[in-house]
Structure formats: structure tokens, C-alpha cells
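Risk register update: the risk that structure generation would not scale has been downgraded. Supporting records follow, first protein first.
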Amino acid sequence: MGIEIERKFLIVSDDWRQNAAGKHCRQGYIVNDHRRSVRVRVLGDKGYITIKGATHGITKPEYEVAISAVDATEMLDTLCTGGQIIKTRYFVDYCGFTWEIDVFEGENAGLIVAEIELETEDQKFEKPPWVGEEVSLDSRYKNVNLSRNPYCHWK
């Protein structure tokens, strides 16, 4: 079974931007309910379709398959419902881990979230100095929920 164990944090400074490489990302959802989601994504010049199950803590079942960027774009344009997520994803290495920093655009502009994927829920890692409050258990920060309730609508 494919498993994703992910922790999310807000960013407190721009120090992460040194040597950060970014890729433009557009993603949408074909299925989006409380038990599962089917996501289509174009990240850089590659396409992906991802199926995720319900989250338990910071763990969820996840299956991802590469598809052509052309097919992914067509699916985004014709099959996805609700709002789409537009962001630039940066990859930053820090103390043996690759952090993914998402700088959101459009209706989620102003939101910057850092994610780290782990092998176990209790795996130890060093937090970079540019990482602040953990929001892993706050469902508003899940991309699937940002597509339904964008950051610009939060009070």
C-alpha cells in the first residue's frame, strides 16, 4: 500500500529562498470528498494523477502515477470540479531531508507552506530556522480543502 506521512508548517522568513529551485504547479480534483480524492497535477513539465484516502493523523494512503503533461492539462481543463490550486513548489535540502515549500497564487496568494515527508510518524528531523507553526492537523491547509475554501476567504 502506498502511504504518505507528511507534516506541514508555516514559513516565518524568506531565508529558505537561497538556492531554492522551483517548479510551477497547477492541480485540480476530479473526486473530492471526506473519504478520498483524485487529483490531477502538472508540475513543471510532468503530469500526475494521484489517489488519496482519508487522513488519519498525518498519515494517508496515497497512490501516484505519472502521466503526460498534455493529458493532465486536458483533465484539468475538462474533468476537474471546484477551484484549482496554482502555486510554485520549491525544493530545499536541509539536514538530510528535502523540504517542499509551496508559494500559492490566485485565491490562495499570500499563503506559503513548508512540507516534509517522513518514513514514520515519529521520525526525528531538525526544523529549519525559517519554519514556524506546525499546521499538519489543521485541515484548512490541505490542498484539497484550499481548492474548496481558498485562503482569501479565511477570516
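Supporting record for the second protein:
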Amino acid sequence: MNTPTWIALSAALLASTGLAHAESATYKIDPTHTYVTFEARHFGTSTNRGRFDKKDGSITLDRAAKTGKADITIDTTSINTGLALFDSHLKGDNFLKAQEFPSAKFVGDKFSFDGDKVTSVSGTLTLLGKTRPVTLTATNYNCYDSPFFKREVCGGDFETTLQRTDFGMTYGLPVIPDDIKLLIQIEAIKQ
């Protein structure tokens, strides 16, 4: 291969690499459109629900390369079931130990796509000082141009089922089941 052809080919490869890299974008979580909720069966009858009011984080997404990274922090002291007494119980030593562990963290580094749409995010959840693998399955994933922010916003509904014993929560077993459903409705604004 002669030198001018080699230079042209190298420039084309560098340009295409730059284009793929240019597709990567960071999105900051919009706390007004992001909800982290949970569901737990109670003595085999009703379903207890609650949410975490404070959360923060960002997502880096490269739709061309089909890669991404999610970094989400949940303030466990912000748990809200609508009942202060129950919130105190859940923050206490039997469950979240929120005074000792005031946050939980999800780091996702394996994104699955169907076309441009994210279908799942796998990574780890750190809760009560223990880190375990978690996969969040996506539904309703979409991106749109926000007329308010004048930027792209991406998001969807994500969910998984956790075994609380994986994180050391054994209180109430087996009457209070091990399975906890975690639901995250998220929207994030392109930076």
C-alpha cells in the first residue's frame, strides 16, 4: 500500500472512530421525573409499597456502540411509605440500617439494546455494605426533545426483583417474604 493511500485510510479510520465516540452522551437524572419505589408482600396478603424521595446520578450512553454506564445513588434515609412510624421501622436495624448506611448505589455497565432502545441494564447494587449483581429490565424506553429543557431526555421504566437476604436482611422471614420488587421510573437530561 502506498503512503498516500495509507494516510487516507488511516484518516478515514480515525474519523469513523471519532464519529462513534461522538455518539456518547451523558445524561443527568431529572429528580422531578425519577421515582425509585419498592413492593413487598406482607404476611402473604397485601403488598406494602414505598419510595425513596432522594436520588441522584447520571447515565452515559452510546447508542451507536451499544454501550453505557449508569451511576445512581439512592438516599436510604429518604424512604417514604406515607407512615412515619413504618418509615422509622424500615430505616432501623431490622432493615435498611439507614444511620449506618445512608445510601445505596447502583452501577450498571452492561446495556442491552433492541435497535436504539435500551432493554436492560446489568451491574451491581451496593446496599448495607454488600455488593450484588442486579439486572434491571426496561419497558417504555424512549428519548424525546424536551420543549422545557431544550435538550434530549431519555428514560423508561426499569424493574428487578431482589432477595433481601442477599444484603443481610433476614428480619421477619419467612412470614415477610425474601423477594422485594424494585421499580425505577427514570428520566435523564442530556448534558
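The helical segments are 3-22, 84-91. On this basis the risk owner (M.S.) recommends closing the item.
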